[in-house]
Each structure stands twice: as structure tokens, then as C-alpha cells.
Write a structure and sequence with these properties.
The strands form four sheets. Strands 1, 2, 3, 4, 5, 18, 19 and 20 form an eight-stranded mixed sheet that branches. An eight-stranded parallel sheet has the order 6-7-8-9-10-15-16-17. Strands 11-12 form a two-stranded antiparallel ribbon. The protein has helices spanning 2-9, 94-103, 122-135, 158-163, 179-192, 203-206, 219-224, 232-248, 260-271, 282-286, 295-299, 323-335, 350-353, 370-379, 385-392, 394-399, and strands at 24-33, 38-47, 50-53, 63-66, 71-74, 76-81, 106-111, 139-145, 168-170, 195-198, 207-208, 211-212, 215-216, 228-229, 251-254, 276-280, 340-341, 416-426, 445-455, 458-462. By secondary structure, the chain is α/β, with parallel strands linked by helices. The chain has 16 helices and 20 strands. The protein has one domain (75-415, 423-444): Alpha-Beta Barrel (TIM Barrel). Bound molecules: zinc ion (ZN). Zinc ion binds at residues 172-173, 199, 255-256, 344.
Length: 465
Amino acid sequence: MFKTLARLAAAEFTVSTNGEGGLTLLRGGRVLDAHQRFDDVADVLISADGCVIGPSAVPSHARVVDVRDRWVLPGLIDLQVHFREPGQTHKEDLLSGSRAAFAGGITTVVVMPNTTPALDDPELVRGQNEKTARHGGVRILVAAAATKAIAGLELSDHRALKAAGAISLTDDGMPVQDDDVMAQVLASCARHGLLFMQHAEDLRQTRVDGQHAPMNASLTQQLAGVRGQPSGAESHMVARDLLLAEETGARYHVLHCSTQASLELVRAAKMRGVRVTCEAAPHHLLLSDVDVVKASVIAAGRPPSSPDDLDPNKKMNPPLRHLSDRLALAAGLADGTIDAVATDHAPHAAHEKARGFVDGPFGVIGLETAFAALLTFVDGGTITPLRAVELMTSGPARVLGLSGRLGTFAGDSGDVVVVDPRRDWNVTPGALLSRSKNSAFLGMRFRGRVEQTYARGLCVYQRFN
Ligand SMILES: [Zn+2]
């Protein structure tokens, strides 16, 4: 399937011409392939048929690129992305989302089904892939809706969705609340060999009087006078689901795991053999609930006293948690409990976020900052470079059951990223290609930046400054 896309990719995205025959040699970089446990200086030959580390012979017509002092990685994989198509393309669409992904070194994404309409229909699942294939964008894997219209009541046709190419099922954003429906969903996932991905949130704890609490239950929340989400809203649902996953034998994945309690449940379940995996988002790893306060309020040295003192670009669901949760997640990166880092890239237009912290929508973008954010933990000594690479390549590939095919040079994807690990840069709206600019990291400085991205053997992104 992937090889046929290479021919189509040329139209929309290719930014530099490969050598004759579509060959590029990256010369002298530090090659990191976590799947093959490879970390050494080597040349990499890229073609539409895949990559070769340390090729014994290089055709004379290959384009040669000097990448000394750079890292050369397999294309990154993001397990949780919202491209807003169909229905809300003023925020993002498959093409603007692809550009942002490539700029972040991400060549494969899993799109969530909470579009308008929801991806509960096999035709919609096929449409996602076909449209992107025509334009040569990022490789899209579809997480289809587990229940009809993600209403949590009636199961969608799991067999037909799998036949249409769905890689997993989820009702992300609208967790399956009913215990019996959830048991049916997981039993069906086990029957059809489908992964289930859960946005774990007990809505009975987070929606009070019809209002969805906009941030974590905390002192900051109390001072600002807004409602708070207790962290148990996440871990209680994870606990229920793990019991059901154990009973049914289904593969169960916790999307954007954000609390210490959830992570400890996952760790214990893994130890007793439950087929569970989890991911963490960069914003939950780097920020906590005090960071929700606007920088200007902190600079003035006063505590928040109204919702206006809170930054709408720090509002997402699950919310930024306590510092102790953040530190627990960092420990989970290091000890292997966390299988992948995924962005939950959730674009919203400026006028929507301008409705304020309480009334504006949940969600932040993340494709272009994810790997740089993860490198913070390499610089701090928490994880090795190879582990950072694993968390966005072979880790997510394993979650999806695609080990050895994606996220490694051993596969035939032809997806490659070149990163300058020492390049400092400021996260500003102008630095981001996503149609929406609602990053939680605006104003921050990161070290490490994607320089080139290759998809299906073709250069689809190149930084020139
Ligand atoms: Zn979610």
C-alpha cells in the first residue's frame, strides 16, 4: 500500500528533488533506530522502497546530503491527532495538518473519529486515506468510532470498520461511560483483533450542572473561581476498563494518560499480563496546573483571582495536572511504563480560543513541538536519545501492532527525519505551520529542531534557516 503512494506524493508536498531514480544519501549523521537498538554514526540511503543503513554501494546518481552532527531517525508516529476533516476545516484539514506533521518530523498519524460527522461509517474511514493519498500527505491511520455517532449507546459495525482499514476503535472525547456498553465494545474488539483507545474520563465527575470543568481541581482553580476536574475522573475509568480488558482479553490503550494514579494502574496491570499500553502528551509532561495562570499575572506577582487570569491556550482535556502527576509521568518515560508520546494535536481558531478560558474549547496543537519537547528529558538526563526516539517511533508502532513495519529503518516506509539536536528555537505563532496556533508552549524556548523530513522516500519538508 505504501509504495504506490510515493508516486502520488510528488504533486503537493515534495520540496526538493531527489537524485535520479529518487535516491538520497544522508552522509555522516548519528543514526538512531530504537527497533534495531542501533545508535551509531552511519550513512543512510533513502528510496521509495525503504532505507538502508550503511549501504555497501551508493549509486553515483544519488543526491548526497551532509548531515554531520545531526540525528537521523525513522519517521515519527503520533498516536492521537485531530485534523478536523470533515466538518471543521477552518481549524485544520488533512493537508494543513500534513504540513504541520512533516515540520515536526511526523510521517504517520492516527486520526481520531470525533469529526463532524463522526467516523463511524466505513465509507468515511476509506475517505480519510484516499484523500490524503491523492495529495501525498502524512500517512493516516484511522481510529474509527466504537459506538454510533460516538454517543456511547450502540456499537458501530466493528467488522465493517476493520474491513475499511480502521486500525483501532475509540470514542475519544466522549468516553464510553456505560459499563455494559464498554464490556460489549471490548469483547467485540477482542473478537475482531482491534485495539481499543480510551479517553478515560468519568463525565459524572467532570460535568457539573451541565458545565464541563475547564481545569484540574487545584488551588489555582479555586483562586480563579472556575470548576475543577478531580484526577480520579481519569483513574476510576482506567481501573474499570482494565478489569474489563482483563476479562475480555482485548488490547486496551490509555490515550493521553495524565495522572499518577492512572499510570500506577497501568504499571500494575502490565505486570499481571493485561494487554494494556499507554501514551503521554508533551504538555502533560512539561506543564502543570499552575502554568495555566497567564504569564502576565505571574509576572505581576499576584495570585489568579478570576477566569480572565487563565490562559485559554493552556486549556485541554485531560487538563494540566499537579506537579506530582507530571513528575510521575516523567518517571514513566524512564521506566518504560509509557509506551509512546502522542500529541493530541487539537487545533482551534483564534476567535474560538478568544471566547476565554471557561467558554473557549478544550485542546492545543502539538505536532511541531512534540519531539523538541521530548528532548527536554534527554537534556535533563531522564532518558537516553534512543529512548526518546523509541517513544515516537517503535513504541507507538508496537501499540498499533505494526512493529518492524513503521517507526524503523527495517521497514519499507522510506520515512526519515533529520534533527539538529542542538538547534535552539522559540515557539511563536510565526514558527508554526498548523492552520491554528493554539500551542501551550507559545513563548517557550526548545532545543532540537527538525531540519528535513522524508516520506515514502521523498523529501517533503526542508528548513532553510
Ligand atoms: Zn481525548
